[in-house]
Amino acid sequence: MSKSVISNETELSILKDITFDVVAGETVAIVGTSGAGKSTLMALLAGLDIVSSGEIELLGQPLSQLNDEQRAQIRSESIGFVFQSFLLIPSLSAVENVTLPAILRGEGEDIEKAKQLLASVGLTGRETHLPAQLSGGEQQRVALARAFMTQPKILFADEPTGNLDEHTAENIIELLFEMNRDHGTTLVLITHDTNLAKRCDRTLSIHAGQLQEV
Amino acid sequence: MDKHKMASGRKMVIRWSWREIWQGQLWPVMAALTLIIACVVALSALAIRVEKVMTDHGRSMIAADLVFSSANPTPELILTEAEQLGLTKSEQIRFQTMAFSDSSMQLVSVKAVQSSYPLRGELILIGSNAVSKGSLQPGELWIAERLFSLLGIKIGDQLAIGDLTLKVSGKIASEPELTYNPFRTMPSVFIHQADLGKTGAVQLGSRVQYRTFFKGDDSTLKLLQKVHPLQTGERWISEGNQGRTADLIIKAKQYLSLTILMVILMAAVTLVLTCQHYADSRTNTVAMLKSMGAGRRWLRQWLLSQVGLMFVAAIVLGSLIGLGLEALLRLPLAGILPDQLPGYGWQPFVFGSAVALLIGLPALGIPLIRLLDTSAIAVLQAQTVKPSKKGLWLIAAPAIAFLLIYGANTLVWMVFGGLIALFVVLASASYVLLHLLSKAKWGPAMSLALSRIKRSAKSSMMQLAALSGSLMLVAVIWLVRTDLLSDWQETLPADAPNVFAINIAPTEQQAYLKQLDDNQIQRSSAYPIIRGRLTEINGENAKRSADNGNDHINALHRELNFTWVTELPDDNPVVAGQWTDQKGVSIEQSLAADLGIKIGDKLGFMVNGQAFSVPVNSIREVEWQSMKPNFYLIFTPDVVKELPATWLVSFRINDQKLPFLNQLGRNYPTVSLLDLRSMGGKLQTILGQITWSLTVLAGVGVLSGLLLIFTLLRLSLNQRQREITLYRTLGASRKRISQTLWSEYGVMAIAAGFVAVAGAELIVFSLLKWGFKLDPSLHPLMWFTLPFLALLVVFASLMSVIKGLLKPLK
After folding, report:
1. Can you tell me the ipTM of this complex?
2. Minimal CA separation from A207 to chain B, in Å
3. The dihedral of CA A109, A110, A115, A121: what is its sign?
4. Is residue A130 part of a domain?
5. Does CATH place domain B524-651 in 2.60.40?
6. Are residues B189 and B161 in contact, defined by beta-carbon separation less than 8 angstroms?
7. Which part of chain B is CATH 2.40.70?
8. Which residues in chain A are closer than 8 Å to B292, comparing Cβ atoms?
9. How do residues B80-133 score in pLDDT, each as one tens digit?
């Protein structure tokens, strides 16, 4: 598949004829320099955007043939996200943030499960705290717990440690891999940190819009 | 799926929405909505009360809610209908006759009333031993105070009214139904209707006026007026068509609705900007929720629950604040509002909520519909999207409501048209001005400020437009108030004449005026009075010529007071033709219009059986409300000078000169003195009340306008946070940034101030000229005040946020 955008009336090719497969249960790192197209690739894989040509099949579904709502449905049922800037809702407490994906699925607020997940990321006793009352590392733990709330089949993590100090980052990564293992989730990790990438089963490198297996 | 869990999910969304209002960015929107509701509730509640009070005043002057007046007994149809409608009624018959005491006689105006009179207003009768009462019984006779001296009688003496002789029960201290026409004010006498027959005064062909007073609901009174088509000599009298107060009430009402509209307009601007700001701040959240799989339907419900909750909260809070505000507004009016305040019902709350909903619908709807279109990918990469035209149809809601409510209101269209035209012209003018300013040589701070304004032309112009628009509305509210009041003060100055002397014999005239002048009494010119009729227009019978639908013209059915002068009075400006030295008559413009009289038309008159005709030389404007001698017809001296006349003069008496007035009455017993002091006082009181009400309302309008501007500016300054942090990071000193901000906002304030004052002048000019029908004038002081005020508000807003904006970098 390929992706290009129109910028200042000229066509800019971001991803050029990329082909690859990710098998269920695999952990895959996508590495590359800033602007290489890592985030664009992740957006396409998660169905946040659509390809310019070619096709992406997500859990057996051809994404370009689905409309916005259908792609949202897949995300709510099978996909979890962890973002670089955590993206917690400031007016919701830690436990409420964790239950959010379940509410988006129309499932209701499963407080017990959310509390268990918070406990599994080491935040027992912080359930009612608002994001502003938590440190960066703690906020990312909440985001991790949130990502696993709906038992996703695939977890997309976009530079999950980009906003954290080294020590905290290491803790988060440990947690991420541990939870991934425990829940049997497929992990697609975007990072520019090659050491972090090495912990995944496979590493794909993007350069000038081309993808290479490392 | 587990129903319990689903319900808990919905509860969580509601909880979230509630917190979004208080912790999220939704509170400025809610504050703007609350402000709109509070202002509309307070102003309309006060308007309803003030209007009711003014209406009550008007009605107390006509002794009822509605009066039917006729030369014949009130038609049975009206009376039975009134009974069926459950209206309270009271009947009066009035006529003029001679009253005879043992030693003297006097022409009086007799009012034969029922015990239920008056249905409104105050009748105070003071009997022997100063016992006062408010209604009269059969067998009683109450007379105006001056009749005691004119007839040389005292309480308990006998007085004959026609064939009826009664003992005088006491004096009339206060009565409703006062009239300002000195020629028609004869001393009053009250008797009970049960005694009317015994006077023998009312017979076939005698000149009698029948009045029936009604009291009841406005809607019922309207129904009553529809049952009987008016015949010649019949009319309905209400507070809206009677006398001086009617004009005051109508203009004050117009002003009230204008003020409310302006406050709404200003708040709407703020609401639109805060809503836009809110939607912008929520882009990331919506993108994130979409990335997590939220569908449009879910997001729509989520936003709706937030907005719905916010509206409910704003309506409750706004109504409460509105109530408090109304109570606060009433404080300065405490002395003049009645103790038993009239209620205002649900109307202000419904009106306030409806206004907020109608404005909120497009203001929030359009940015929120666009927010729903946020692409999920925005969670990873900032997107630049062209604003879509989706949701623009929502503007139709307030537009249609506006058309329905104000469609026929020319005043409102004037303001609206003025606003649009002005923005086109003045926004470009200020843009050019800024452009020219930037060409001159300035210090670094000013240069940076000017270049920023120029760089972000669109947003700067938006801000300039919002600022100057709000300032302009503030200025309009204040200026219209000032001009209205000064017009009223002019027509009814505090030193207006309050006593009329009529029937001065020509032989006494010089001596009489000398006595006034010797005592330093402020007086009008003296006018000769000749009573006669207007009989012909261009050789044709005036009444016949009036048959063309002009039969109702009162002036043709009665004797008029003519006068002659060498020069027309100063306050009678000629609107057509020219005053001549001889062989001419000048006619008042409304009478001329009613009779279709033009310059050069020959009018025929009859005075003391003597007929003569004379051409119209001029048409004059007469201020009937001024308490000065006014005439429909003024002749050149040669035409009527030789006819027998008595003289009239008006003057002002204050309390210290009261003994002189009594002395004057004794020295000239044949001269009738009309003491209008209590009536003039009443009028002054009403004027005082209306002045206060309008000033308070204008004050609230101005204050809320300034508050809104303040909020707006703070919002705009807070949006600059990121840019300022960037400047700081790049090494700009706090002083430099602070100077740049002061310069930028200072330039904008002055530009907006001038744009606003120019716009306000234009709008006030049109409003006064075509809306309130007054003479407009320029307001030079405003050209200094408004830019200064703009600077003050801008600086106050800047002061309140600058510390936060310039906080040290982390």
Report:
1. 0.90
2. 19
3. negative
4. no
5. no
6. yes
7. 524-651
8. 75-76, 81, 100-101, 104
9. 999 999 999 999 999 888 888 888 888 788 999 999 989 988 888 888 877 778
